[in-house]
Amino acid sequence: MADLGYYWQTVSGHWEILEQARPIDEVIADPATDAALRKRLESARGLRRFAADELALPNNGSYTRFTRLDRPFAVWNVVAAPEFSLAPHQWCFPVAGCVSYRGYYDLNGANREAEELTRAGYDVQVLGVPAYSTLGWFDDPLLSTFIHYPEVELGRLIFHELSHQVVFIKGDTAFNESFATAVEQLGVERWLSRYGTAAQRNTWDAYQRRRAGFLALLQRCRERLDALYREPDTAEAKRTAKEAVFEALRHDYRQLRDGDWGGFAGYDRWFERRLGNAHLAAVTAYSGWVPAFRQIYRQGGGDLERFYAEAARIGRLDPAARRAALQRASDATTIPAAAD
Fold it and tell me: Which residue intervals of the chain are DSSP H helices?
């Protein structure tokens, strides 16, 4: 009965979004549309056209309509991991297969799920998500939860979500999200080279450098925790050591923020929360295989359609062979001769 309730909120929540969607041309032409929204919709229309014409992403009805929501996020995802493991908890669904999150259209529902998992001993995180993909089953609309993002951020999100319609491997969240992140990066870089201003390119470069520094911090933390969880210590000893590792992560972040980043505080909110394995799992799903996918793109001569075909081929391999192929590509990024 609980699962029936969950599926009902999923179906009804998405139907509400689709039912309220209006063609963006109609919204742009509406005299009641405020100037700021009209400008963002015009930008989104151009980015959508670029995605189809220049990035070989699906040319369909996705992101050609707009829905205004009365909430800050489209959905809230619950991510969980065991207390002494970095492997995310999995939920299995008929279409998407097993994924490392469970989405709710209502924050209260997400919090209830999080409380149950916490009582069961899991590390849990509830993430507000501005957009999601239905994998081409429906024409996903633009949403008020992200339409006012800066132009580059708007493009990044549209490219990411459309890429799920190109390659999606049932049951492999890390593969799917890392592939989509690689596509969003490649798409933004191409858009910036064609249409971006100097200020936009500088902002993107700074974002990428800070993101790389953030991910490097998390990777060192993961390595320390992985070693800790393998130790034959008592649960209490591991619990104490685990807190020390996360406190060291916060310390290292503050040093990076106040040093190389010149006080940039964009990641402060992430570190203000009580951190746990679920926080690391959520980030890793979107970034872990990105270097591998970018290497596959380079090996294909920078041809996006060839890249998509190779990603799909790797995705069709059995899980062990798929992971091995991605690992080989990831390892090749450390070899200078193989970088270009």
Answer: 2-19, 24-29, 35-54, 107-119, 151-163, 173-195, 198-230, 235-258, 268-272, 277-287, 290-299, 304-315, 319-332
